[in-house]
Structure formats: structure tokens, C-alpha cells
Write a structure and sequence with these properties.
With 366 residues, this protein is α+β, with helices and mostly antiparallel strands. The chain has nine helices and 17 strands. Helix 2 (19-26) runs parallel beside helix 5.
Amino acid sequence: MSAVDTITMMARDFVDEGKKKLIDNTFQATYLARTMRESAIRWAGGPAVNEYIVYTGSGGGGHVRGKRFTNTERQTDQQFRWTPRYLQVPIVVDFLDLAVLNAPNPYRIMDILESKISNAYITLGSQMEIALMLPGSGNTWGANINGWEEVTSAGTGATNGFTGAVYNTYGELDRQDANYGTKIRGNTKAVNAEISYAVLENTYTKCCIGGARPRIGYTTPLVKSAIKMQFQAAQRFQEAVEPTFGFVGFRFNEALIIDSRYCPGSELSSDDIADDYAMYTTEDQATPATAYPALTTDDETFWWINTGEDYGHYYISTHPVMGMGMMPFFGSAEHDGLVSRLRLAYIFASAAPRYHYQLNKIKVNV
């Protein structure tokens, strides 16, 4: 058996026997990404995913006897279209570790292999959450999924998102279209001040349409602390523990406010994982990024997010490798590295951008 076959077999056995451990490592990211993955739609693949919206009524109304009917055919619906994006994380093992340094018992390399596989899954989980907040179009972020920055944009003439841009097209539809444009615009507000109860309440209400209510208030640790300090005297919040994963947050109306260090803010702007992701993801784009978008303590963000069944769909491939699985190990003719990869094909889509809200340029005192 070749070294490549041996290491592939050991990796397969580790995944089979340690599967629960690896899943736990995959889901070490915070509440938002875990919520999206747990409710993900298992996607068999294809060139794109289509979702449909109704943006106006069919016409008609009150009728009196003898009145002629109006039979004009109306265009009442439109089709979104999103294409898949891909993530990969390398797992590299040195052939000499397998063939020489751990001889005569090659299975001693299991300690190394376990560490590398676990690290790769943790890295993948982190990248999934980082990607979820970034856009998936334009000259820089075209290889990323179409994340919340793009969802919450209202297009030309509206407030910039935290990356400093607006996104006039979403799901291949034009947000300035005279017929349906207003129905596919998100919500973005530059606060340019400390967070306040009035801002939270008014923007929360903006996302309440029909029976839709934001389920999550997603923010940075600094903004979460600022909210608690401001509202403590009035007791306008109540500590809550999210029952599925055990994250501690607090309730605001019907939403659970939860913090994450992967939420765009000053702390993430100096994060090595975020910088690595930004540079690698954009290196083939027209305007590559040299780091994650630079944000300060005057640029913290808060997001009202509706994770209801109809308002945000996370599609993950059912393919055994492309659905967060491992490729076999391959050897190289140029060096001693034996290389495998975690792979992911996925899509994020929201057919109702108006049910979400981005607040940026929130100032905090530290």
C-alpha cells in the first residue's frame, strides 16, 4: 500500500470513528452560522438556485352588476437566481513523518492527523461565519457567497454598507426596477453615534412586516456590552440562554441579541483568520483585498436578522466531499507533502431582503 493510500485510509477511519467529534469542531463558530447550518437545505447541486417572489397583487376588486371585467394580465412575480460558491481548507502531512519519523508504526501519525483534521474543520467553520457577513459581488468579493452585507443593501443612492459600498443587483435582479425594485431592497443605516433604545426599536419595527419578525440581533461584543450598560437602569432587557446551543444573550422584543467576534467590527479587523480569508478569497479578483475591511471602534455593526423559513436559505451540497467532506490525500512530484482538502459548495439566499437590517458606524467608548 502506498503512503498516499495509507494516509487516506487512516483519515477515513478517523472520520468514521471520530465523526461526532469532528462535527462538534465544525460547529464551533457562533450562533448565527450554527443556526444557518442546522437549518440548511440539503442541495443536490446544479448551476444555480432559483427562488420566486410575489411583488404585487393580481388586480380586481369590488364589482357591480353589469360592469365589465378587467382582464389585463399582470406581471406579479419575479425570479431570483444565485450561483454556488466554494470553500476549501488544505490538510497537509509530510511524507517523512509517515515513512521515517514514525516508523515502524505508521499509525503513530494519527496524533498529527487528528490535530490537522480538527484544525481544518474549525477553520472551515470560522470561514463560513466570516463569509456570511460579506458580499458576493463586485470587483473584490465575487468569490464569496452573497452574504448579509449584500442582502441588506438598498442599492444606488442608499446608505453604504460596512464595506463602503452598495449593491444595486441582488440575485440577478435590479433593485432600481420600476416594478419590483422597492420590494427587494434591504435596510442599512449609519448610526454615527452610540447605540440607543430608539434606534434599536425603530429599526426592529422596520423589519416587522406581516408575521415576519427578526429572530436574531447579531452584533459585536463591544456593542452588546454598550447595550447592556445603557439599558441596565431601565431593565429593558432580560438575560436569555438560547436552548439549542446554549449561547447567552438577551431578549429584545422577539429577537435574541447575541454577540460574535466574527461580526464586522474593530476586533475582527485585526484577526488573522479574517485577514487570511479576505486575501485568499479575493486574490484572483479585479481589486483584491490585502486584509479584512478596516473598522474602528467608531465602525461597530449591529444586524437585525430574520432566520425564518422563508427569509434566509442556506444551501449545502449533499455530495460526500463537497458537503464539508474530505478529499483523498494526493502526493506531489515536487515535495514530500501529502495533501487533502476539506471542500464545501454552498449558497446563501434571501428572497426577502426587506426583513433584515444593518446598522453600521456605531460608536463605542472603550
